[in-house]
Amino acid sequence: MKMLITGGAGFIGSHLAETLLEQNVEVHIVDNLSSGSISNVPENVTFIEEDVRSASLQHLMAAERYDTVFHLAAQCDVQHSISNPAHDASVNILGTLNVLEGCVRNKMTKMIFSSTSGVYGNPEYLPVDEQHRVQPLSFYGLSKLAAESYITLYHALYGVPYTILRYANVYGPRQNTKGEGGVVAQFMNRLFTGSPLTIYGDGEQTRDFIYVKDVAAANIAAVHNGNQGVFNISTGHGRSVNTLAALLGAMHSSPLLLDYAPAKSGDIRDSCLLHAHAAKELQWTPRFSIDDGLRQLYDYYAASSPGCP
Ligand code: NAD
C-alpha cells in the first residue's frame, strides 16, 4: 500500500505518518513547511516540499497512484483566518480542490479529509452529533465546511471515494501553540519555562480534548471503513480549562502559577462531540484517557526540557 499525507510535516500528520510506517505502508508527504517542520518528518518517508495548490501535486498523484490520500495540509490558525480570509480560503478550499483533481486522475484514490468541530459553531445541544446544524463562527470553519462540500460534490460527479473526519481539540507532542486545541501546548510550554498559565475568563469553559494518537488511529480506521461518511472524532467528554490546569498541576513538582485574564470575545463556552457514529461505522473509539494522554505529553516535554522542574 502506498499513501500520501498532505501536511505530514505538521503535528497530526507526522503522528499519522509514524503509525502508517509501523503498519509497513509506503508513506509520501507533501508539505510546504509553512507551519510544519522537517524535523517532524519520520525517517523512511518520501518527503516532497511542495504547496498543496501546485499543479505538480496533480502530476505526482497521477504518477504515484496512491491508494489513499490523507488531506491534512491547511491554514489552521483561526485568528489568521479572520485577518486574512482570502489566504485561508486559498489554502483550505483551493488546496482541497487540487487534491480532489488529483484523486479524479486516479479514481481509486480515496480521500480522507481532516475537518473540524469548528464547522458547527455555537452548539445548540451537547454532545454535538453529525446532524447538528453547521454555522461556523470563523472563516477557518467556513473554509473547512466549503472543502467538505467540494468533496461530497466531487464524489457525486466523479465518484471520488472519501471520508470526512471532524476533530475535536487535538493535543499531543509536536503541537505548536497557534492551531486549534493550542491551549494544551500553551500550558505545557509555560509550565516548562516556569511561566504562569494564562486562563481566559473563569476557566469553566469546556473543550473535548483528544490525544493525537487516537486521531491518527481514526484516520487509519477510515482507510477501509466509513466510505462517504462524516464522523466526529472526539472523546465525548467536555473538560474545563481549570480541570486541565489541575491535572497538569498534579503531575508537576513545582507549584502551578495561574494568571486569569479577561474572556476572549467570540469564544464558545462549551464544546463536546458525540463519536457514536465513528464507533459504529469506523469501528474506532479513543484509547487514551485524558490522564494517559496528558501523562504522555508531560513526559515528552520533560524529556525535551532536561533540568526543568
Ligand atoms: P499543523 O499546522 O501542525 O499542520 C498543517 C501542515 O500543513 C503543516 O505541516 C503545514 O506546513 C502544512 N501546510 C499548510 N499550508 C500548506 C500548503 N499550502 N501546502 C502544503 N502544506 C501546507 O496543524 P495540525 O494541528 O496538525 O492540523 C492538521 C489538520 O487537522 C488540519 O487540516 C487542521 O485543520 C485539522 N484539525 C486540527 C485540529 C487540532 O486540534 N490540531 C482540530 C481540528 C482539525
TrEMBL record:
It holds the Pfam family Epimerase. Residues 3-233 form the NAD-dependent epimerase/dehydratase domain. Belongs to the NAD(P)-dependent epimerase/dehydratase family. This is NAD-dependent epimerase/dehydratase family protein. It comes from Paenibacillus lacisoli. The lineage of its organism: Bacteria, Bacillati, Bacillota, Bacilli, Bacillales.
